[in-house]
From TrEMBL, chains A, B:
<dbReference type="InterPro" id="IPR015421">
    <property type="entry name" value="PyrdxlP-dep_Trfase_major"/>
</dbReference>
<dbReference type="GO" id="GO:0008483">
    <property type="term" value="F:transaminase activity"/>
</dbReference>
<dbReference type="Pfam" id="PF12897">
    <property type="entry name" value="Asp_aminotransf"/>
</dbReference>
<dbReference type="InterPro" id="IPR015422">
    <property type="entry name" value="PyrdxlP-dep_Trfase_small"/>
</dbReference>
<dbReference type="InterPro" id="IPR024551">
    <property type="entry name" value="AspAT_Ic"/>
</dbReference>
<keyword id="KW-0032">Aminotransferase</keyword>
<protein>
    <submittedName>
        <fullName>Aminotransferase class I/II-fold pyridoxal phosphate-dependent enzyme</fullName>
    </submittedName>
</protein>
<dbReference type="InterPro" id="IPR015424">
    <property type="entry name" value="PyrdxlP-dep_Trfase"/>
</dbReference>
<keyword id="KW-0808">Transferase</keyword>
């Protein structure tokens, strides 16, 4: 029964019931946190072998390199080989770094600003704009905001962004970049398909140094048997005559240890040379012992796949639980929609327009911490104030259930508040 | 017998003998490398416990933090405590990072350029100059060159740079920075004394956002019992009314594993807040498992001191050997001088003016790789072409001896070549 079909009296009754539900919720004194896409302890436990690796007397790479000493800017060849296969990037075009791919995105952006990308001059000093499919990843947007890059939102569908909108924007030579999370996008779970990818790498861009920041953070993070393989985006870009257009990023943060994994950077041969030239000024080399540790633990691409299956076994039930509760509690009301991701770390919930901030505030007052409303939009501004990101991986299954049940109460309460406020004022008595 | 006192015939004889020595040297087909300040295998072996740490099931910090997961921008408190004591920096003003302090220097410089330091506007877009005590560290200079920062050399003495020269330069508002390696400076071994440090932090600077990049890379790297303790440079700067003037850098690269250690950044409370604001855009946190690994291994500041004593036992003999060979082979000629460091990683050798490039080329042709002549000067240009950096730690004692013996032949050969060329031309026959 959609809220819009309720009579004023029915709406008033529903509001009263929800207010009581909400008061009961607050009285429970919950302390639940669904804010960040963090792995749960049980997921981290899967990789506890890393805590004693590479092992006694083990410090030599396959080529004899002493991993303990300085050097090796590319990262260990054997860890690059494993992820070259998984990311569908030639190993010569994939570098391994320290624990954070966000850091590589930052540095790449900074070098574009101060030095200019391959074939371009420094971006700093002139207006720079980035295309931002929305909803998207708040940390991408924070990087742009930090460096004064104007963000232009473009709607993201199930298989990629609105390509006509992207095409129009690329006519502006100050549009220098675009954020893409191609696989199981944060937060909607969208999967860019091959046709979309080919369009993006092939489109005419007024800026010859236009770059796609291709953050394949969830490349192997499947939640179902319908596994979306990584696209050969660098090959497509080369075929399209724009070999340098794409920067590829990835990491093991949500594969092994979130804070102590290995990051990766991929690009055209020219981009890899460019990156190394700049990186060589910044560092004498990444932590190769951590690379070796990961090689000894993961062994090969199949080792990663087997590990991801164990992650899936732990987190897919949490996603199913969220979906079941949302369906049960919200399904009857036509007031909210949500995504049904087949991979990644998030569910994107759209509540009644204009109520997301209220929902998050209500939840917070009831001890349920959600990512701030609007976080998935540039400048934190959701123009329809309707989107809420749900990150179900970190809490226990019981906590996820408790939080989502509580959240649905908040969603309905905010919607009925809004519907009541929209009723015509009663005739004067 | 100084070369200048030799008769032309004696000089010709000496040159002939040295040429023969050099030919013998080339014939030996050496392959020795004294280029970089890298720890030897035996030094890295001292810390092999790290290869199995933090240990089975060990991932909790003292405060209960799960080091495997995201977060913790400051770095683990317990590793900060250990190095706060050793670096003489309050723990609240010391952050722990990933494996490279050079990276922290890079990022700090980049944020000054793009965002401006505390109390300053962005440096990029206007001329920026840095004071560079010489000889100095080539990677510092490479950072400046990379970002178009003009470097102004100032002579470095045994206890710090020429302060009058520094004072004069600070009258220029475009002088925004200065590199300092305060303890056992690379490559001379100079130790900045307290009076010099007080002058540097207190001097009037035309640029209110002038910054000293205080790279205390060798704070605990003593070679004798005359240990130079780290100065409380942040306290001195605060007392002098310039609390934000100093950025402190350090790492365990030459304490534990050169490529897999922990880096540190120190500054005023305002600087630490500034750094964290910027770093929070770049990363969700450093590798805390590596911090925990180091805490379990090093235990406390005394653990570091004990480890450094074992390093000293391995490398002090190499330094003594270099000094002995230089004394034996060059002592009689008045053509070269060298430093007698009481800590750090280098010996700085000054050969006859105008011959350093020739010496390095001769050595290279004989299979002895030395750091390029001029490397210790901005833009790689030693105005007197006389300075050569000797890095004796990495090769075996036999290799160090072989390399330095060979080097002395090159030093004398180049000097006699020069002296012969300077003789008046013989009267026409």
């Amino acid at each position: 029964m959609p809220l819009s079909e309720l009579t004023p009296d029915e709406l008033t009754d529903l509001h009263a019931r929800l207010t009581k539900d909400y008061d009961d919720l607050v009285a429970r004194g919950l302390k639940l946190d669904l804010t960040r896409g963090k792995p749960a302890s049980a997921q981290l436990d899967l990789s506890n072998e890393l805590l004693t690796l590479p092992g006694e007397g083990e410090f030599r790479a396959a080529d004899g390199t002493d991993c303990r000493n300085y050097g090796g800017l590319t990262g260990l060849p054997e860890i690059r080989e494993i992820f070259a296969e998984l990311l569908n990037v030639p190993v010569a075009q994939l570098l391994a770094g320290d624990n954070s791919s966000l850091s590589i995105m930052h540095d790449t952006l900074v070098w574009c600003l101060l030095k200019g990308p391959v074939g371009g001059s420094p971006w700093a000093g002139s207006p720079v704009k980035f295309i931002c499919p929305v909803p998207g990843y708040d940390r991408h947007f924070a990087l742009c905001e930090q460096y004064g890059i104007e963000m232009i939102p473009v709607p993201l569908g199930d298989h990629g962004p609105d390509l006509d909108a992207v095409r129009d924007l690329l006519a502006d030579p100050s549009v220098k970049g675009m954020w893409v999370v191609p696989t199981y996008a944060n937060p909607t779970g969208a999967v860019y398909d091959e046709a979309v990818a080919r369009e993006l790498v092939g489109m005419t861009a007024a800026a010859p140094d236009f770059r796609i920041f291709w953050d394949n953070a969830y490349a192997v993070h499947h939640l179902t048997d319908a596994e979306s393989p990584a696209l050969d985006v660098l090959g497509m870009a080369a075929e399209a005559g724009n070999p340098d257009r794409v920067f590829v990023f990835a990491s093991t943060s949500k594969i092994t240890f979130a804070g102590a994994g290995v990051s990766f950077f991929g690009g055209s041969p020219a981009t890899i040379a460019w990156y190394q030239q700049h990186q060589s000024k910044r560092s004498i080399g990444p932590d190769k012992v951590n690379h070796l540790r990961h090689v000894r633990y993961l062994k090969d691409a199949d080792g990663v796949r087997a590990l991801m299956a164990r992650h899936r076994a732990l987190i897919a039930p949490k996603f199913a639980q969220v979906d079941a509760i949302l369906t049960e509690r919200l399904g009857g009301y036509d007031t909210a929609t949500w995504t049904h991701p087949i991979g990644g770390y998030f569910i994107s919930l759209d509540v009644a327009d204009g109520t997301a901030s209220r929902v998050v505030a209500l939840a917070k007052a009831a001890g349920i911490a959600m990512t701030g409303a609007g976080a998935a939009f540039p400048y934190g501004k959701d123009p329809r104030d309707r989107n809420i990101r749900i990150a179900p991986t970190f809490p226990s299954p019981d906590d996820v259930a408790g939080a989502i049940e509580g959240l649905t109460t908040c969603v309905l309460l905010a919607a009925t508040e809004q519907a009541l406020a929209a009723l015509p004022a009663p005739a004067a008595g």
